[in-house]
């Protein structure tokens, strides 16, 4: 139903005083039914490409690291030696060199991605002022270059850190740009569903690269594991070419959009003052930083992302160390929790629409309800996974799938609330939230690799205990203090004046009634 609504132009349900009456339904565009649908699909492809370039290392590290020697026994004879990082690498027939990154070095390389994400606090502000289309294209282009750096300069640990930092920086440019673009392209009634389609691209990217990476690890194509990075970069190039021709910062810049759809989006965005870049408006940082609603959403998003980062970065390593799966099987099984997360995102968005249409619950109540169930289920099944050993490997995979399924309920939950509370400053609010996500993401891999020294089940259980605590925290914080209502400081001047006039009118009416009764 929601997809059909997005595929055609439909009348607005509400308009502010002084606006034109609702537009009649207009016929779909002659060669594409709705450019809102096309925009959502393109953004989904964008996230898929960027996430392929992000999570490719989590799978390739299983087959590119030399695990045949200990840290105290470096192989430096009959093999090459790299003075750049003082590590040895082994060359196998038909395969690329293996590298000898220590667990600590691996943790730093994974953390470098989140170090780049810290810049989202800056890019979030820029997303509300600059052309979002070129920010998206630029972010993917940076990720493509950085991804190709890894197989080319893998013998240098420092170049690998720089490459991962640049991929994180590209993601920092992408997320707020997409959120800002969504507020310009979609009315509030469609935004939650559009967000689920767009961000579902992250799971789609994982589904595409993880099983393929497992197969490439065993092949000799481009040396084996380097083919994983080449394939990821190629996906980014394909998206850039498509988006340059089909994408636009806002509807008015797309020449082939139908007049009816353009007018519909313009009226919808006028109610929130989101249809244009806010160069003339300053970001109310004081109001944002003092807003309990903002911080409740930020904490919920951080607690949602922390377990997901653990799964994205270390699930293949966990399945390899604890349950002893081969690379090919590991690649297939590692994609199943991601598939569950993607399915849950779509289904939960349908559930969100159904609750809005068939209940009297407010948007805030629906967000809290779905987010609470998601956080509880995520935490319970992450903990349940720690109770299983290698003899119940299939059940552990099932529990991980269920945990990620419940995590999908956060999309119409805290993530939708993050966009809803201040649509006019969605880039800034998103940047603030993902600044703290990135901060936790820097600690996550370093802490994980510090804990997991001998690859034992007990060490991995401790990692899952920490993720469980993070997952359960929003059951209290967001359920009590969370909201999806637009904050008064984020409303347009027209709306603020309108509500001030209503309040003044009610006060005058009450005073006149009191005087008459007296």
TrEMBL record:
Residues 1-24 are annotated as: Disordered. Keywords: Membrane, Transmembrane, Transmembrane helix. Pfam families: MFS_1. It is a multi-pass membrane protein. The keyword Membrane applies. One of its GO terms (biological process) is monoatomic anion transport. GO terms for molecular function: transmembrane transporter activity. It is found in: Membrane. The keyword Transmembrane helix applies. GO terms for cellular component: membrane. InterPro entries: MFS, MFS_dom, MFS_Na/Anion_cotransporter, MFS_trans_sf. The chain crosses the membrane at residues 35-53, 108-127, 134-152, 227-246, 288-315, 327-344, 365-385, 391-409, 416-442, 462-484. Signal peptide: none annotated. It comes from the Eukaryota. Residues 44-486 form the Major facilitator superfamily (MFS) profile domain. This is Major facilitator superfamily (MFS) profile domain-containing protein.
